[in-house]
Amino acid sequence: MTESAASHVSQGNADGVSLRRVSKTYGLATVLQLDELTFRNGEVTGLVGENGAGKSTMLGILAGTVAPDAGGDVVINGDSVHPGSPIASQAAGVAMVSQEFPLVGQLSVAENLTLGMRPEGKGFFFSRKSVAAVARGMLKRVSLDIDPHAPVSTLSIPARQLLEVAKALGRNPKLLILDEPTSALGPVEADLVISIAREHAANGGAVIFVGHRLEEVREAADRVVVLRNGRLVADMPVADATDDRLIKEMVGREHLATVTADHSGLARSAPVFAAEDLTAVGLGPVSLSVSEGEVLGVAGLMGAGRSRLMHTIFGAIPRTGGTMTLAGAAYAPRNAGHAVEAGVALVPEDRKQQSILPDAPVRWNVTLATLRRLTRGGFFSPKAERNRAKEFTSRTGARFASIEQPIGSLSGGNQQRVIFGKWFAAEPKLLLLDEPTRGVDVGAKAEIYGLIDEARARGMAVIVASSELEELFHLSDQIVVLRHGRIGRVLAKDQFSKEQVLLTASGVKEIP
Amino acid sequence: MTRSQAGTSNDAPETVQAAPPVRRNRLRAIVDIPEFGVVAACVLVFVVVTILQPRFANASNLQVIGLDLANYGILTIGAGIVILTSGIDLSPGSVVALCSMVSAYLNVNVGVPVGLCIIISIVIGMIIGYLHGWFVTRLDVPPFAITLVTLTAAAGGALALTSGQPVSGVSFSYQDLTLSKVAGIPVPDIIFVVVAVVAWILMERTYIGRQIYAVGGNQEAARLAGIPVKRRLMLTYVISGACAGLVAVLVIGRVGVGDPSIGNGWELDAIAGAVIGGVSLYGGEGRIVGMVFGILLLMMINNALIVLNVNPYYQQVALGLVLGVAIVADRIRARSRGQARPRGIPIFGAGGSKQAGKPTPAA
C-alpha cells in the first residue's frame, strides 16, 4: 500500500495508460480492435457503447482478467504491463469497480476492504482493531456510514457498490476504472461517486467512467470515447458529447425514435390494486392505488424502501399490517406463490441473483412461473412447453440462437426480455418492476419501455421502482416518493421535476 | 441444430453467432448430450472386460451385477434428486440398516406379515427423510450436517436393536421377492427400472420436478417465481428416505437375515453414481438417465475388478479414480460451455444458507 502510494506521487512525466494495437478475438469473432487509445492522467474519460461493443473486454484487458491477442501493448506511465495477469495489473496500479460485486459475504466490511492488503508491521498476524481503523478511513472517503464489523451479506446493494468503490480507492490506483458504478445507486450516491471520480483525476490519476446514463457520463467526464463493434468510433471533449451525438455513435444509425409516453387518453378507472396502511419491517404505513393501464412510479433514495415495498406487495416479505385489494377482492399473500396465483408478478432488481436460473435453458426460464398451468393431471407435454416458451419470447422480442441455450449466455437486455416473457405468460393483473432496466444497454432500454407500454395496453396495472428519475418521468402517470419507508409525496404527471423528487426524497421539504 | 429465431435478422451485435452449417452436426449433437460420456464408458467397459474375461458376460454374473445394481441404483436415484437441489444426503446406507433391522425384527419377533413390514420399512425411511427436510428448511441446518447425524445415529440404532446380533428366521417371502427372476431378470432390477421410470416422469414431465431443478439452480429466483421452495426441498429428502426404505427390504432377501451392519458406506457409492452420471454437486443439473448409467458403470467396474482378479486393495483406488475422472470431466464440460464455477461450497451451501448471502432489499 505504501509502495504504490509512493509511486503514485512520483509518476513523472509519463502520460497515463495506453492501449496500443490491442485486439481480442474469440474464434472467428473479433470483439476488440484498437489502434491506440490513451487514458490520460488528470482526466476522467467517459466510456460508452452498447452491450457487446467491447467495453467489458477492453476493461478486462486493462484489469488483466482478459488476455489480449499477441502483439499489442498495455502501457502504464511508460511501463509495459504483462498482459493477462490480474496481479501484474494490480501491481501496476489498475483498480476496477465492476458491476458485479466480488465481495465475500460472510466476511465483515473491514475484512473485505483490507482483503489482499498486508497490514503493516504485524508479521503474520493482524489486529482486529487496526483493520477496523484502516477500514473506517476507507469508508469515510465514500461517505459510507456503516459498521466496519457488519458482515457484507447484511448490506443493501447500493451500500455494497459504494464498498467496492472504497476498496478500489484504498489501493491508491493510478488508473481507476468505474464500470457502471452508478447503476445500482440513487441520485445522491451517484453524485458522490462522480465527485470521487473527479477528485481522483484532480489528484493526477487517470479514471475511466463507464455509464449507461449519458448525463452522468457527461457530468463525470472531461472527454468521452465511444466503442462500437469492438472499435473506437469517436473520441470527443465532453462539450461535444450531446445525447444525440453519443447515441448516434453508439448505435451507428440515427437516433431511435424515442417511445413517447402519451397516455393522456386513458381515463382513470377503478383501481386494480390498492394498499391501505401497508406495513412491514422498515416500511410504511403506505397507502397507494393503481388502475388498469396505469403506471405508478416509485422514487426514493437508497434505503428508502422501494424494493421492500415491491417485495411486500408480492408477499415475499411478511406484511405486518394493513390491507390490500386486487381486482376488487381482498388480497393477502403469505408468500410469492399466492401472489402469482392471485395475478401479481415481480421483476426483481438483481437479475442474476433473483430472476434467472443461469445455467438452465431459456425455455425453462420462460415457463418457470406458469408451468403448472400447462400441466394436465400434473404432467406437461414438452411440445406444449416449447411452443409456449417460443410464443412468449417472441412476444417480448428476446433474441437467441436456440430456446435450449442457457439464459446466462444472453446479454442483459435479452435476459430481461425473457423474464418479461415469463411474467406476460402469467397474465398478471399487477406487474411490479424493480429497476427494470438495470444493466441493459440503450437500445434494449427503449425496447423494455416498449414492453411496459404493451403491459399497460393489455390492461395490467404497473408499479415501477427506479433510481433513474428520467426513466420514471418517462414511464409513469404518477410518482410516489418514498422516504424512510413512507410516502413523502405524490406527484402527478404535470408536477414531475427532479427538484421536487430530490427535495422530498432527501427530506429537505416537509410533507405538504 | 441451430434454429434461427424470428427476429435474429435485426442488426443487434449481441446476437449469438450462428454456428456454420456443417454436416457433422448430428454427430456433434449426440456427443453434446451430457450423458454421452457415461453411456459410452458403460459400453466400453462391457466390451473390453468381456474380451479379457468372457465369464463377465455370463448370465449368472450379469445377475450378480443386476442385484447390486438394483440396491445401489435405487439409492442413487434418491440421493441424486437431493443433490439436484444442491443438498446432500449422507444417510441412505444407515437408513437401509435401520429399516431392514426393524422390518426383520417385526417379522420374526412380532409376527408382522411381510407385506406390512415392507410398507413400514418404506414409511420409516420417509419419516427420516421428512425430518431431514424439516431441519434443512425450518432451521437452516446444512444438509451435510443433519444427514451426518442420521448416518451415525441410524447405524447405531440398527446395532442397538439386537445388540449387534443378526435377526434370523425371516419369512421366505423376502427371498422370494429378491431372488425370483422374470425371464432371467431379477425382480429387484424390475423394481429398480420402475423406480427409475417414475423418477424420470417426475423430474422431466411434471411441474414438481421442474420446480425441484429450479430450487437447485437458483433458490431465490425460484422463490420469487412463486415456487414453494421449502416443500420441494422437503419432498426430495422424503424421496431419498423412501428409496432407502425400499432397498432395506430387498437386502433382507439377499442376505437371508436382518443384518445390522449392512449398508455401511453405501451412501458414498450412491452419491458417486449420481456424480459419475453427470449430477452437479452445485445443484440444478443432472438427469435421471445419467444417474442410472452412472451407477451401472460403477457396478460394472466393481464386478470387473473382481472377475479380473485385481488385488482388492487396488479396487478401491480404481473406483476413486473413476469418480475423479467423472468430476473433472464435468467441470471441463461446464467450462467449455462458458459457465463460471458457481460460488460457495456445494455441500454446505444448500438449504437456507444460500439465502443468507442475499442482499436485504433496501434495508
Fill in the keyword field for this structure:
heterodimer; A: 512 residues; alpha/beta; Rossmann fold; 2 domains; 6-stranded mixed sheet; 35% helix; globular; B: 363 residues; mainly alpha; ABC transporter involved in vitamin B12 uptake, BtuC; two-stranded antiparallel ribbon; 15 helices; 1% strand
Count of spatially separate domains of chain B: 1
Oligomerization state of this entry?
Answer: heterodimer
Structural class of chain A: alpha/beta
Mean pLDDT of chain A: 83
Give the strand tally of chain B: 2
CATH fold annotation of the largest domain in chain A:
Rossmann fold
Point out poorly predicted stretches of chain B: 1-22, 339-363
Number of helices of chain A: 19
Q: How many angstroms does the end-to-end distance of chain B come to?
A: 47 Å
Query: What does the largest sheet of chain A look like?
Result: 6 strands, mixed
Report the β-strand fraction of chain B as a percent range. Answer: under 5%
Tell me the CATH topology of chain B: ABC transporter involved in vitamin B12 uptake, BtuC
Biggest interface reads: A-B, 79 and 51 residues
CATH architecture of chain B: Orthogonal Bundle
Q: Summarize model confidence as the mean pLDDT of chain B.
A: 85
- By secondary-structure content and strand pairing, the structural class of chain B works out as mainly alpha
CATH class type of the largest domain in chain A: Alpha Beta
Q: Helix segment count of chain B? A: 15
